């Protein structure tokens, strides 16, 4: 790592690194469990997409904003945690304190990867599905391209921050943290709107949200109490937990409580049947055009 980034540390490296010492073993163990829980929490969503083979119920803007929010957050924590990695590099921290200082990076890295994988799984599992709205899939492909572009820009930002001065590094980190919080708030608005309009959760997993909503508050707490943590790294998760809780209550209401002679399952089935009919009509039209061309 570039020495210019840490020129302000100078001969007081050890003193500057003392903030990462004295890590709690209990908090470390708790954080490891939270990390495992993050992975487990996304499995119901992946499974639901795999089984249903459709993006019905998932807002395209939710996928886009959620993926970009994750990239912003990951960029933030990579930069913010760079000081701790420097302390590890110069030997100012023992192995345990060093590992503990990178827990935020590990946790957020896993969480962001899992969130972006929702978009990836949707793209892979619904591509050839007869249940999938083809126009919607085209929009999801466009989202995937924008997310990939954002990822490239993020890599450039990380290298710029790490190999210049610490003032610029913190500026880039804070901007990414603020944008992450902003997109986190924004991403739930289209998803809440979509769920309210459809009156059913569709492919959106209630099981995932049941795990993630309380876990989000616990995760925020572990980030907050981690040695050397910065507010810009945990504020987006607090906002996400609050808004996801709202979405969860809405999904539970439509799935299990509201029943005016028509269930959410029937509503979802109608939408999927409509997509199937449209796709079959499209296939038949293509076949008819092919026959005409052959005969001519």
Automatic annotation (TrEMBL):
Assigned GO CC terms: membrane
Taxonomy, superkingdom: Eukaryota
Keywords, sorted A to Z: Membrane, Transmembrane, Transmembrane helix
Subcellular location(s) per record: Membrane
Membrane topology classification: Multi-pass membrane protein
Gene3D superfamilies, per database record: 1.20.1280.290
Transmembrane segments annotated in the record for this chain: 28-46, 58-79, 105-125, 168-189, 201-225, 231-254
InterPro entries in alphabetical order: LAAT-1, PQ-loop_rpt
PANTHER family assigned: PQ-LOOP REPEAT-CONTAINING PROTEIN, SEVEN TRANSMEMBRANE PROTEIN 1-RELATED
Protein name from the UniProt record: DEHA2D08998p
Organism: Debaryomyces hansenii (strain ATCC 36239 / CBS 767 / BCRC 21394 / JCM 1990 / NBRC 0083 / IGC 2968) (Yeast)
Lineage: Eukaryota, Fungi, Dikarya, Ascomycota, Saccharomycotina
């Amino acid at each position: 790592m570039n020495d210019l980034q840490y020129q302000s540390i100078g001969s007081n490296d050890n003193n500057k690194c003392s903030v990462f010492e004295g890590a709690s073993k209990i908090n470390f163990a708790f954080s490891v469990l939270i990390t495992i829980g993050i992975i487990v929490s996304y499995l119901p969503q992946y499974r639901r997409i795999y089984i249903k083979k459709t993006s019905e119920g998932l807002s395209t803007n939710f996928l886009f904003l959620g993926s970009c929010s994750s990239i912003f957050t990951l960029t933030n924590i990579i930069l913010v945690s760079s000081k701790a990695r420097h302390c590890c590099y110069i030997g100012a921290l023992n192995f345990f304190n060093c590992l503990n200082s990178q827990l935020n990076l590990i946790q957020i890295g896993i969480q962001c990867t899992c969130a972006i994988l929702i978009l990836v799984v949707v793209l892979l599992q619904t591509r050839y599905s007869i249940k999938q709205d083809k126009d919607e899939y085209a929009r999801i492909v466009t989202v995937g391209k924008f997310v990939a572009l954002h990822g490239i820009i993020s890599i450039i930002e990380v290298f710029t921050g790490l190999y210049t001065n610490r003032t610029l590094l913190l500026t880039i980190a804070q901007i990414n943290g603020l944008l992450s919080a902003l997109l986190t708030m924004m991403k739930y608005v289209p998803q809440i709107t979509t769920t309210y309009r459809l009156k059913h959760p569709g492919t959106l997993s209630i099981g995932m949200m049941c795990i993630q909503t309380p876990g989000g508050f616990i995760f925020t707490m572990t980030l907050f109490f981690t040695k050397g943590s910065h507010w810009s790294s945990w504020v987006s998760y607090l906002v996400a937990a609050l808004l996801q809780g709202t979405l969860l209550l809405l999904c539970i209401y439509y799935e299990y409580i509201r029943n005016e002679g028509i269930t959410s399952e029937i509503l979802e089935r109608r939408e999927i049947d409509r997509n199937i009919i449209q796709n079959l009509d499209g296939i038949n039209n293509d076949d008819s055009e092919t026959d005409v061309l052959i005969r001519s």
